[in-house]
């Protein structure tokens, strides 16, 4: 299964990577994207992954609305609310 992580906090991204590999060592993390602009660029030139773990609010804006509207027509979306507190 191919995975993309969208997270602008380094510690949170690394913790999520570890959790993913603990659950299933066969999951392939394609990239970790840290901004809305990186998301838009990456998804415009790459195939959609099987799963995207996405932080809703990034430093350069709310990725949830700006980015998902662009994906809606090309990807199956399943929204699973999840919280992670790194503090």
Characterize the structure shown.
The protein is α/β, with parallel strands linked by helices and 87 residues long. The chain has one domain: Rossmann fold (3-Layer(aba) Sandwich), CATH 3.40.50.2300. The protein has 3 helices and 5 strands; from the N terminus they run βαβαβββα. The strands form 2 sheets. A 3-stranded parallel β-sheet has the order 2-1-3, sandwiched between helices. A two-stranded antiparallel ribbon has the order 4-5. Strand 1, helix 1 and strand 2 form a beta-alpha-beta unit. Helix 2 packs parallel to helix 3. The longest helix is centred in the N-terminal third of the chain and has 14 residues. The protein is globular, with a radius of gyration of 12 Å. The mean pLDDT is 80.
Features:
single chain; 3-stranded parallel beta sheet; Rossmann fold; two-stranded antiparallel ribbon; 87 residues; alpha/beta
What is the number of strand segments?
5
Beta content comes to 15-25%
Straight-line N-to-C gap: 30 Å
Taken in chain order, the helices and strands follow as: EHEHEEEH
Could you give the order of strands across the largest sheet?
2-1-3
Task: Please give the largest β-sheet.
Answer: 3 strands, parallel
Q: Low-confidence segments, ≥5 residues, pLDDT <50?
A: none
Number of domains: 1
Question: By helix and strand content, what is the structural category?
Answer: alpha/beta
What is the CATH architecture assignment?
Answer: 3-Layer(aba) Sandwich
Total DSSP helices: 3
The CATH topology name reads Rossmann fold
* CATH-assigned homologous superfamily: Response regulator
User: Which geometry do the CA atoms define?
Assistant: globular
Gyration radius over CA: 12 Å
- Work out the helicity level: 25-40%
Mean pLDDT: 80
The CATH class turns out to be Alpha Beta
């Amino acid at each position: 299964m191919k995975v993309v992580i969208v997270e602008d906090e380094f510690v949170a991204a690394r913790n999520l990577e570890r959790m993913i590999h603990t659950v299933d060592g066969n999951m392939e993390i394609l990239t970790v994207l840290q901004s809305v602009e990186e998301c838009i660029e990456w998804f415009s030139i790459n195939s959609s992954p099987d799963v995207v773990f996405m932080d809703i609010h990034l430093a350069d804006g709310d990725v949830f609305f700006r980015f998902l509207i662009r994906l809606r027509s090309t990807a199956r979306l399943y929204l699973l609310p999840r919280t992670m507190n790194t503090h």
